[in-house]
Amino acid sequence: MIVVAAGLLGFASYKATAPGSSPKETSATGPAAEVSADAQAGVYPELAKLARRDAGDKLAAGRADAPVVLIEYADFKCGYCGKFARDTEPELIKEYVENGTLRIEWRNFPIFGEESENAARGAWAAGQQDRFWEFHAAAYAEGAKEKGFSKDRVKALAQEAGVEDLARFMKDLDGEAARAAVAKDQEQAYGIGATSTPSFLINGRPIAGAQPKETFTRAIEAAAEQARTTGTAGSAEGSTGSEGSGNSGDSAK
């Protein structure tokens, strides 16, 4: 399996915490991810295959056939994830998602306990009513993390996000489908060696932490150029994904 093979590689980019240590938040103050002038350096083709490219994915933003896919593993209780969501991701969306270069795929990676799980399942449940990105924005707003993510609070965030059927939302929140979807994302993150949030893959290139925007820009540009030169860029026709914003990262403490 891809995840198992990837996990065995032990990527340097994901060594923010040693194996067996507690999950942590990873900020831009940590080691910056080096993006070589060589577009293929630091890129693992097996990891690129983790992009789902499902046009019906409710937890994604951008065209399903975009040449570059950024996969984000994040926790709503992660302060650095929130910083990325507020400061960096909107700019990446404006510069790269809107012109069809980039697709962002969210993976729930709850590492801070029960409230993290509540928020992750709430995000998934909001997505079932096409309000994932609105929930994402509400949960990552300034001061939202400090109010916690009890089930009542998650319901309030869903209401703020414009989720129409709150009864269905609460049912979905506690349903097996939500638990299975979150567990699948979480297992994938651990499988590739991620132990902190946020963690990212850009066309198979691992990046750990809420790095400066320039780190993401260089990785996206390198991946886009590689797609152009190899003829693997997605067609401009056909698939479309959801529009939305993203988040930044924390690591478990």
Topology:
Elements: H1 2-9, E1 24-25, H2 45-48, E2 60-61, E3 68-74, H3 79-97, E4 102-108, H4 114-127, H5 132-139, H6 151-160, H7 166-173, H8 176-191, E5 196-197, E6 199-202, E7 205-208, H9 213-230
Parallel strand pairs: 1-5, 3-4
Antiparallel strand pairs: 2-4, 3-6, 6-7
Characterise the protein shown here.
Strand 3, helix 3 (79-97) and strand 4 form a beta-alpha-beta unit. The relative contact order is 0.27. The longest helix is centred in the middle third of the chain and has 19 residues, at 79-97. The protein has 253 residues and is of the alpha/beta class. The protein is globular. It has helices at 2-9, 45-48, 79-97, 114-127, 132-139, 151-160, 166-173, 176-191, 213-230; strands spanning 24-25, 60-61, 68-74, 102-108, 196-197, 199-202, 205-208. 42% of the residues lie in helices and 11% in strands. Residues 223-253 are annotated as: Disordered. It comes from Streptomyces cavourensis.
How many strands in all? 7
Termini separation (Å)?
30 Å
Helix content: 40-55%
Give me the number of helical elements. Answer: 9
Shape: globular
Give, in spatial order, the strands making up the sheet with the most strands.
Answer: 2-4-3-6-7
As residue ranges, the low-confidence spans are 1-21, 28-38, 235-253
- Radius of gyration, in Å, reads 17 Å
Strand content: 5-15%
Order of helices and strands: HEHEEHEHHHHHEEEH
Helix-strand category: alpha/beta
Major beta sheet, specifics? 5 strands, mixed
| Average of per-residue pLDDT values | 83
InterPro entries: Thioredoxin-like_fold, Thioredoxin-like_sf, Thioredoxin_domain
Protein name: DsbA family protein
Organism: Streptomyces cavourensis
Keywords: Disulfide bond, Oxidoreductase, Redox-active center, Signal
